[in-house]
Amino acid sequence: MNLAKPRLTVIDTDPGIDDAIGILLALASPSFTIAGITTVAGNIGIETTTRNAGRLLAFAGREDIPVFQGASAPLSRVGPEPLNLHGEDGIGGVALPDPARLPENRHAVEWLADFLMGQPAGAVDVLALGPLTNLARLVLEKPEAARRIGRIIGMGGAIHEHGNVGPRSEFNLWADPEAAAVVVASGLPFVLIPLDVTRRVRATREFVEALSSSGKPTAAMVASLIESYFEAATNRESRPLHDLCVMLFALSPELFECEDLQLSVSVARNEQAGELTIMTEGGAMVRVAMRVDAPAVLELLTRQLTAD
Ligand code: BDR
Ligand code: CA
What we know:
The protein has 308 residues and is of the alpha/beta class. The protein contains 12 helices and 11 strands.
C-alpha cells in the first residue's frame, strides 16, 4: 500500500486518550511533517490539554515541535465539564515524562495565522481532533490566513449514527457548535470523520495485546493508553479509536468511502447542539467519510506503530 506523501501538518487537539494515540501515530509516521501542535479545551481544561501535548512530545523525543495554547472556552457558551472517560489527567493516568520545553508564549490562533501566511497557499493541512474553536477563530479573525489551509481533516459529528452526548450529537461539535457552524460554513476544504466511521474502528483486547508484546515503546504506550480507556468505560471489550481515524484518513484515504454532503450544524441551546442535518438547500458542502475498511486501517495502524 502506498502511503500519502509527507505533508506539512498542524495538529489541533484536546488530549484526551484517543487524541494522544493519534498524536503518537503521527509522530511515528514519516507521512507527517508536524510544524506545531495547537491545543484547545475540550475533554479537559486548556492547561491540562496543553501539558499533555508537551508530555506526549517529551515521550516521543520530539520536543523540537512547538506547542501553542489555544482557546480555553467555546466561542460563545460555557465549556463542558471534564469527561470522566479520559481520567483526571486527561490521558487515563498513563505515565508520561514531564516536558522539558514550555509551551510557546503566542496564542495558537495568532501563531497558526502567521505560519499559514509564511507557507505556500494549500501547503498546510490541519488535523482537528477536538472542538473547532481555534479554527473558527482563525476563520473569523484571520480569514486570509484561513484560506491558505490545504485541507482540514476533523473528527466530529454523527450522520446516521446515534450521538455520544445527545441523541444525535457528538462531543466535539456539541462542545462548541457555533465554532463548528463557522468552520462548516467557511467553505474551506473540510473532510469530516463522524461517529459513523470512528465507531467501526475499534481496539479489542487482542489488538492491545499484540501492540504491548511487540517490544516497541510507542506501540506499548498506545497499548497502555487503550487499556486505561477500557478501564474507564462500561464496554471493556472494545473501544472506538475516534481521533486516530483522522491520522489514518490522512495516511490512506482510499480505505475510507466519502460522500459530499450539504450540512448544517445546530446551534440550539439544548441537547440538539452540534447535530448535523443534511440539507437540500442551504448548508455547506463537506466531504464526509461514511464507511471504512476497518480491518485494513487497524492493520495499517499496527504496521506504523511497530515498524523498525
Ligand atoms: C471525540 O470526543 C472526545 O472525547 C474524543 O477525544 C474525540 O475527539 C469523540 O466524540
Ligand atoms: Ca479529541
